[in-house]
Amino acid sequence: MEHAPSWLINSFIYLSAAVIAVPLSKALGLGSIIGYLAAGIAIGPWGLGLVTEVQDILHFAEFGVVLMLFLIGLELEPKRLWSLRRPIFGWGTAQVVGCAVVILLGAMAAGVPWRIALVAALGLALSSTAIALQVFGERNLLPTRSGQAGFSILLFQDVAAIPILALIPLLGSISEQNEALGYTAQALQALKTVAVIAGIVLGGRLLLRPLFRWIARSKTPEIFTAASLLLVVGIASLMLSVGLSMALGAFLAGVLLAESEYRRELETDIEPFKGLLLGLFFIAVGMSVDFGVLRQSPGLMALIVAGFLLAKLLVIYAIAKCMGVPFQERPVFTVLLAQGGEFAFVVFQTATAAHIFSNQTSSLLIGSVAVSMLVSPMLLLAIDKLLLPRLAQRGGNQLEEIAEQQEAPIIIAGFGRYGQIVGRTLQAQGLHATVLDHDADMVEAIRQFGFRVFYGDATRLDLLRLSGAATAKILVVAVDDKVQSLKIVDIAREHFPNLEIVARARDVPHWNELRDRGVLRVERELFESSLRSARSVLEILGYPPHEARQQAMRFRQHNFALFEQMYPHRKDRAKFIAVATEGRQQLEEQMAQERAQQALRRPKGWGK
Amino acid sequence: MLAAHPNWRASRVNQRLLAAARTLADGNLQLDVQDLYANYPDYAIDVAAEQARMEAADLLVLVHPIQWYSMPALQKLWFDEVLTYGWAFGAVSAETEEAAPTGAPGTALRGKALWLVVTTGGQEDSYHPESYNRYPFDAFLPPYAQTAALCGMHFLPPLVLHGAHSAGKQEVLDHIDLFRQRLQTYPHWTTR
Prior knowledge:
The structure holds 2 protein chains of 2 kinds.
Chain A: H1 6-27, H2 32-43, H3 54-75, H4 78-83, H5 85-109, H6 114-125, H7 129-138, H8 145-171, H9 176-206, H10 208-217, H11 221-241, H12 246-257, H13 263-288, H14 291-296, H15 298-323, H16 330-338, H17 342-353, H18 359-393, E1 410-413, H19 417-428, E2 433-437, H20 440-447, E3 453-455, H21 461-466, E4 474-477, H22 482-495, E5 500-505, H23 508-516, E6 521-524, H24 527-540, H25 545-566, H26 573-604
Parallel strand pairs in A: 1-2, 1-4, 2-3, 4-5, 5-6
Chain B: E1 2-3, H1 14-26, E2 34-35, H2 36-39, H3 47-56, E3 59-65, H4 73-82, E4 113-119, H5 142-150, E5 154-155, E6 159-161, H6 169-185, H7 188-191
Parallel strand pairs in B: 1-2, 1-3, 3-4, 4-5, 4-6
């Protein structure tokens, strides 16, 4: 028999390990990441020993992190990024510096030389963006206070990794390499760095969109996917060539494209690659856990893990409190940020290369970070099973999840600005509704006004069932997050077909997607209030209020009809726009015609 | 047929008239039933659609309770907005006093018929010079009749049920039956 090439065998090993371990770990309630890590341990040199070239795989798999940051960038418009600058830089700095200082002091007290302690502290202060964001996402926490806070801090860490990496060679006692380069070379290097970043920003602004348009016109979907990947690979290697973080470059590119019309396509193209490569990354991390070091000095390793986790838990809990993260969300938030992160691996490897760390130290620290990644899902499990129920029970003032079956005929999911108006109108009619909201702050505030609102996530099937979805008549989906809104609708459609759905749409694509799911009673959240404002403008311009109302209502009617006309073409952008434009012109012509007719009628009219 | 009732839940007779008409429309009678307050709860009447509907019809049936000696507000709004100058009326030129030929502007309703099917709260004898309504019921009909006339429509004899709140069960059923029978036999009953 001919030998299969090694890459084929390796792919086979990786994929089968993942395919076996991940569903198993999910079934055990441990989440996918621990599954990948376990798979890595199993096939790595310390497990079955099926794969040995861990470093190569790790380098390749880092690309998963790069793709993830590109996707995060895509989600962030520059405007939103700017509005987040305070949490990002303020609290991000507090977290990194706070954690690093505490760990540094602890390590120095234990007698570790300061240089080693400093680099280790900086590396350990970072958290795993990949794990934390995935868990925030899995738990639907991204739109909440803790999700936003966590996101800001993680983003800062990704940026902070760059100066940390730059600091290491300076700290290295053997810096003759740099000196050999000389100042001119160093200045040249700095110039190159600036030039590359400027090039990415300018290129992203000016070139990418026309380029994508040109590629999209070829109508070859796989080439569009290839171009998306090419973009990320290209930027990553560009950044690498000037010694910057690949991930940061990809993030930058993502942000630059966040406003472009190709955002969604890029996202859907890259998403599958991201998932698999991230999985590979965690497998590689699992493989790189050096159990030899662990066996040699298990006590020391346990001490390091416990020590840095404890230090970070304390600092991050304090930060969470100051940032106003709700009480119930704090444990999860703290644990997620306390674990070590993927950048730590990079930092420690660099430190070893700069001869700050011995191989022994490096293995020990890398092992600790990997162990902390393994420990944190278990901590989360413990929080879910032990801590949160107790938190929920403690005192009457705590937020109640639904404990017993509710029976109101109406369920309102989301009790923010929108859901409240719906709920209060119903309440005024003496109608009862079961209200769910997953924003703890909001729930607490509303409680003070005497409303009975349950703290809970309406995308959870068990909660919906407890809310009485099986017997209720109407489900009002008033949450403001599109993804969650659609998820709730999907669950309701599948499990409670008896429910009539009344939904809030954020925008036209959301409206279309709700329609796709068969929801007929959809309101665009701003439409009616915007019409009111239009009436106000007409009134100020001198229209009698009644006529202003009439004109607004006519526009409304026309707009509804146009929506129905546009709906079938929602997938074909060009046609969609054509129908919209034509509809608008028609309305304008019709209105102009009527004004002319009215002018004609006025002198004659009723009196002869 | 236009049914207009601002408070269907309190209606005894009109909602049965509406239901009867709906049943007929579901059968083989060519009847376009429109519940005004249900279709235009915000009083935003789709004028173009209503005009198209009228152009397709021969007979306009108005079903509503008499309120303040006239029609419910939305029904009146329907008249105000749908029967526009140059479409429903205005065919007679002010200068010549001569009728325009059919098909000219302002003749959309010409030749069609208007049939009023109404209920009153007051008893028949309250519409009397000696009672609180002071005028016979027919004295309140000229606005309807003249509206029809200006648009060139035939004003058919109205079908009225007085004292709708207190009418006996059998009386209401008979009234509904008569209404149904008339709709089914139109246009022949008018000429009989």
